[in-house]
Amino acid sequence: MSETAETGTGTPTAGPTPTETTGGGGRELAPAVALLAVTVAVTSSLSGLLLTIGALAGQVSGPWTSPSPVGPGLVGAAMLGTAPGLLAIARARVWEEARTLVFPLVTVLVGLFAVGIVNAGRLQAAEGGPLFLALFSLGWVGVLGLLALAAVLCVARQYTRRATPLQGPAVPLPAWSRPLVAVLGSSWLGIGAGLLFLPGFWAQFVPWEVNRADAQSLGVWALALGTGVLGTLAEDDLRRVRPALISVPGVALAAGAVLAVRAGDVDWTSGGALSLAALLLGLLASGLTGHRLAARAGATVPAPS
């Protein structure tokens, strides 16, 4: 007998196993993808801590020079918030349970590496910043380049594995939530594309002072968030997007903490600030709601006869 809260005799049993929760079939997750996710989680946690703590203290501790600590701080917050979800990928059974977070991961790694190369003249090493930050900036670009290459190769390798039709009951998104999720994902995607590809124009809507590197790095993260949210909508199965559901509220809470501490650096009367607050609240609400619905569905998984 499989997982129920208790047996007919009142003896407790274990919770649902991954197979019973997500069903069978799918494309087996390549070990390289799980290893990549764990590696990025560790490096993101260390780099994210440096960027976030520096921002909270009012210092620019990023790989490039910035006019305000808020931009690098939000990048660091996003790295910290995503790390728990990346660690959860190591427990995934099939690719379908990981791809809604892996595709945004590839977006971030490739995007931030490109931003570092394009804005090489603003790196701490090029600007003659403190020795530690100069070395950090060089390591930032080098490590990102290696991880970006590894991510592209891992995903390509993943698709060489044989896939079988997914089986088992799905937990689709509630009908009322789909338009809201679509608007949330499209908003992040559009803002990200604007900041990344037209930073000169879109940077003026950021409610704190930014330079080109700040705007583009924030654009990469916004693009990744939009990709993840819309990927969840396309997946339409809350049991298969749990790593992403872990990361989304984490990013919202970490970013909110940076904005709260550095509130004096933000123009809260601007439309950009209000829009950012609404989008972060949307991430938090969607993540927490998804967790609750997935947990409720897991508690009602019927025991196989």
Please tell me about this protein's structure.
With 305 residues, the chain is mostly helical. The chain contains eleven helices and two strands. It has helices at 18-22, 31-56, 70-89, 99-118, 124-127, 131-158, 177-197, 199-202, 212-235, 242-261, 271-299; strands spanning 26-27, 163-164. Helix 3 packs antiparallel against helix 10 and helix 4 packs across helix 6 (131-158). The radius of gyration is 20 Å and the shape is globular. It starts with 17 loop residues before the first helix and ends in a 6-residue tail after the last helix. The model is unreliable at 1-21 and 301-305 (pLDDT under 50).
Provide a brief overview of the structure.
66% of the residues lie in helices and 1% in strands.
User: How many beta-strand elements?
Assistant: 2
Give the overall form: globular
Question: Helix coverage percent of residues?
Answer: 55-70%
What's the rounded overall pLDDT mean? 89
Question: C-alpha Rg, in Å?
Answer: 20 Å
Main sheet: strands, sense, barrel: 2 strands, antiparallel
For the largest sheet, list the strands in their spatial order: 1-2
Query: Which runs of at least 5 residues are low in confidence (pLDDT < 50)?
Result: 1-21, 301-305
Straight-line distance between termini: 7 Å
Topology pattern, helix = H, strand = E: HEHHHHHEHHHHH
